[in-house]
Write a structure and sequence with these properties.
Layout (H helix, E strand, L loop, with lengths): L17 E4 L6 H14 L4 E3 L17 H14 L3 E4 L3 H9 L4 E4 L1 H4 L2 H11 L6 E4 L6 H13 L5 E5 L17 H9 L5 E3 L1 H5 L5 H10 L4 E5 L17 H9 L11 H24 L1
Parallel strand pairs: 1-2, 1-8, 2-3, 3-4, 4-5, 5-6, 6-7, 7-8
Bound molecules: phosphoenolpyruvate (PEP) and manganese (II) ion (MN).
The site of phosphoenolpyruvate (PEP) has 9 residues, from helix 4.
């Protein structure tokens, strides 16, 4: 399976590649104000907003639907941002394409359902639009791979995977456990598929986000998706995990992009030796077990 490099469809601005915007598009004013403030940061490559919100319980804010797509078209006109929205079925996909949404993403609650992913893939046949596939809610790597394959088989080559953590029944400081080994295994399976981390949905609260974002960069991930809202305390969904654009600037300024490749031959040899020792210890452990 061949995927195009990320820079073919998202233009880097400055610093690590960043996708940002509110969890949900709530009103014309909220969307426009957030977009104007994000524009001023000069760090955001793609503006995100949910217009159909998958909610665990009924009677919560479920998004403004088609009406909100019109606001996002205005954001694009006014600020020049390309736009991404979540699509969860064929009808969402058709509407997003009708309004010229630049990039689609498939949410964690949709990746779990092959029927839904397939109906989205069927609408995308013959269409050249980038698609990002979030990991399924539970830690099933095959389901994530399957979702990516269904979209790729529709002929989509501009793709990315989004790591947003995994549901965990029990005590954890995260809203969704990162289980970093899963995105790493996904990368082994699809070496040229761009991988983006969504620390907002991993953490569920603002405080943990900087360290998770840094870890993602340290692991060589290609970009970040972080939620932002002009007034997070009034957000109709995910209020605790959204930053104001000004707070987001601080978070991004605090991140360090380290060079992950190393040309030093001595260090490479030493690393090779250490890897051999680790392999031997692994073998011994397996035998003992
Ligand atoms: C979101 O990005 O707002 C969202 C609903 O994400 P997820 O599918 O990761 O829960
Ligand atoms: Mn959200």
């Amino acid at each position: 399976m061949k995927f195009e490099p990320l820079h073919h469809w998202i233009k880097p601005v400055s610093g690590p590649l960043l996708i940002s915007g509110p969890c949900g598009a709530e009103s014309f004013e909220q969307v426009m104000t957030t977009a104007a403030q994000l524009k001023a940061l000069n760090k955001v490559s793609l503006f995100r907003a949910g217009v159909w919100k998958p909610r665990t319980r009924p009677n919560a804010f479920e998004g403004m639907g088609e009406e909100a797509l019109k606001w996002l078209v205005e954001v694009k006109k006014e600020h020049g941002f390309p736009i991404t929205v979540e699509v969860a079925n064929a009808q969402h996909t058709e509407l997003a394409l009708k309004y010229g949404i630049d990039v689609l993403w498939i949410g964690a609650r949709t990746t779990v359902n092959p029927f839904s992913v397939q109906e989205i893939a069927d609408v995308l046949k013959g269409v050249d639009v980038p698609v990002m596939v979030k990991n399924p809610i539970h830690a099933d790597l095959q389901l994530w791979i399957g979702g990516i394959e269904r979209i790729a088989h529709a002929g989509i080559t501009k793709m990315a995977a989004i790591h947003r953590g995994f549901y965990f029944y029990g005590k954890t400081k995260y809203r969704n456990k990162p289980l970093w080994q899963l995105p790493i295994e996904l990368r082994t399976h699809f070496p040229d598929l761009p991988l983006i981390c969504d620390p907002s949905h991993i953490c569920g609260n603002r405080e943990l986000i900087p360290s998770v974002a840094q870890k993602a960069l340290d692991l060589g991930m290609d970009g970040l998706m972080i939620e932002s809202h002009c007034d997070p305390s009034k957000a109709l969904s995910d209020a605790k995990q959204q930053f104001t654009p000004a707070q987001l600037r601080e978070v991004m300024n605090g991140l360090v992009v380290r060079h992950t490749s190393c040309e030093d031959e001595k260090l490479q040899n030493k690393l090779g030796d250490l890897r051999k020792i680790i392999d031997e210890i692994d073998d011994e452990l397996m035998n003992t077990l």
